[in-house]
Amino acid sequence: ALRAAVVSKVQNNNPRSLNYVQPQASYKVAVLGAGGGIGQPLALLVKMSPLVSDLHLYDIANVKGVAADLSHCNTPSRVLDFTGASELANCLKGVDVVVIPAGVPRKPGMTRDDLFNINASIVKNLVEAIADNCPDAFIHIISNPVNSTVPIAAEVLKQKGVYDPKKLFGVTTLDVVRANTFVAEKKNLRLIDVDVPVIGGHAGITILPLLSKTKPSVTFTDEEVEKLTVRIQNAGTEVVEAKAGAGSATLSMAYAAARFVESSLRALDGDTDVYECSFVQSNLTELPFFASRIKIGKNGVEALIPSDLQGLTEYEQKGLEALKEELEASIQKGVDFVQKQP
Ligand code: NAD
Ligand code: LMR
């Protein structure tokens, strides 16, 4: 609550008047793909964080203007821009959290996996640079297909000898944000109270909202469960179709990614009560990566929360079994992409 108050004050007032409550702005965040549809609003939201001292914006083009523009906001962080591969190392040195929304988005008719051929190489190259320049940073992967790009990142980090599974996160926060919004709307709940865990992965049926675990406790008819589940699973496609060729979710994604960044920074800053859903290395199922609620601490993933997978409804249990084949294949595709390179 204190941080929320500070954020709202930073937005409304001169931050210099806030010395008495302002947390130390001491963390460095890099956004790779910062000139894009997600990157720009995400950079703006991260610029508003009182925990950030330095915001590094990297893209292959068009990032200088974004940084100049943002740097005029009178919030604590210093904004620097980095353009092209030759400036990537400098962008990454000393950074605590790296967020990757670089890559192409879907157009109507495409699956997230259709992005693999382009985005796999982009993520691989960026994570190689992270391994060389800031191997201890938290890495947040947004680029799709997340079910494959996170395993790609893990393999790259392993090859470089710096893989720490606790610090590699696939960003699935948007699935939770959507689930919370849709459930609150359907059940007339106060949005701020609603929390729905979403497990599995981040594509189609691999996105599995656990409506039975909704907080506050609420009952759904079978028809409501079916409709809400399918809507949450197809919410990305809903936006892709509405944008009609102009890309996929950017603003809600930036909002969700900023929440995940803020949670990570709070954890780094010593908050011991930070929980989010994320697609991470996992032993909760037989799959090597799995999205679930996790506890985040100073060193990254401090614990997976197994209780969400206990006491599932029959519908959820079926959904869990049904998603495993696709998720396993997507994970393996990512692993093979790195391991089978000449
Ligand atoms: P966009 O095309 O608007 O922006 C992508 C940016 O990446 C561009 O500025 C581009 O120049 C940059 N880029 C391309 N190659 C790069 C490289 N090698 N290094 C650095 N930057 C590079 O796309 P967008 O709408 O911002 O979406 C980005 C990605 O995020 C897509 O893959 C999309 O599918 C994914 N996405 C994921 C989620 C999620 O929930 N995880 C949600 C929405 C979108
Ligand atoms: C989303 O869920 O909005 C993203 O994964 C983008 C997409 O392609 O749907």
From TrEMBL:
Gene Ontology CC annotations of this record: mitochondrion
Record domain Lactate/malate dehydrogenase N-terminal: where: 28-170
EC numbers for this chain: 1.1.1.37
Record bears the keyword Oxidoreductase: yes
Single Gene Ontology BP annotation: tricarboxylic acid cycle
Lactate/malate dehydrogenase C-terminal domain segment(s): 172-337
Assigned keywords, A-Z: NAD, Oxidoreductase, Tricarboxylic acid cycle
Catalyzed chemical reaction(s): (S)-malate + NAD(+) = oxaloacetate + NADH + H(+)
UniProt key word NAD: yes
GO molecular function, one term: L-malate dehydrogenase (NAD+) activity
Subunit structure of this chain's protein: Homodimer.
Similarity comment: family membership: Belongs to the LDH/MDH superfamily. MDH type 1 family.
Protein name (record): malate dehydrogenase
Record organism: Lithospermum erythrorhizon (Purple gromwell)
Classification lineage: Eukaryota, Viridiplantae, Streptophyta, Embryophyta, Tracheophyta
Included range, full protein: 63 to 404 of 407
